[in-house]
Amino acid sequence: MATNNGDVLMLEAAPQATKPWASAANAEVIDALPYIDDDYGNPLIKAEVDRLVEEEMRRSSRKPADFLKDLPPLPKFDFENCPVLGKEYERVRAGKPPVRIDFECRYKHELPPASKKNDDAAWKQYLHKTQRSLQQKMIELENLEMMSKHGPELWRQNNHRLEVFLTRMQRLAQEQNEEIEKVNRERKYHQQTTAYELNALSQEWRQLCVKNMEIQSACAMLETQIDSLKREAVERGWNLEEKLESVKSLQSQ
């Protein structure tokens, strides 16, 4: 509690943690009581709070980008064992689009031009491309046959696994919601049951503060009266110390 020449001013807030992320002991403590603190529901108070927040944000020298400066640095990624992944990581960082694989050019085959009609190498290359294209089509047909034969059952199994996974996730979500609701009910109960005690303590604190100020005001008035009486005694030539000693002697007898 801050004081200034014995006057009660206000309750000091706890010191702010310089690095809240460094230690759990420095974590910020939220002491809001939302179930009994209804001051923010008042439109006038809400408007005043919003105005103060906006004013503080305008005066603040810390910009939104500076809030990350207090956090620990990010780890450096090392792709020595996987250069392909490192190259892809740099591409994503640079914002470049992914390299598209051109399958049409790979399996596309055209007859050699008229100038190479008698070129054996050109015809061999055309033959190899045709074989690759034929092999690709055969693989596609095999995949279609396997999909038509085993695809429906695989889809049913996959759908069953997804349904089981969805059911489990829904059960977990329901359990978490029940835990959250339980905590909220307990918080509401404890806050509402202690609201009377908090209000009584707040009222007692205000009364004590008012009483302290009244006592200080009365003491100041008595001191002023005593000083005035002392000045009057001096003006009349009275020796107050002798009179006090005589009074003490009479009281002792």
From TrEMBL:
InterPro entries for this protein: SPF27
GO biological process assignments: mRNA processing; RNA splicing
This protein's UniProt keywords: Coiled coil, mRNA processing, mRNA splicing, Nucleus, Spliceosome
Coiled coil: 127-232
Subcellular location: Nucleus
Pfam families listed in its UniProt record: BCAS2 (PF05700)
Domain of life: Eukaryota
Any Gene Ontology CC annotation: spliceosomal complex
PANTHER family xrefs: BCAS2 PROTEIN, PRE-MRNA-SPLICING FACTOR SPF27
Family listed: Belongs to the SPF27 family.
Protein name: Pre-mRNA-splicing factor SPF27 homolog
Organism: Eruca vesicaria subsp. sativa (Garden rocket)
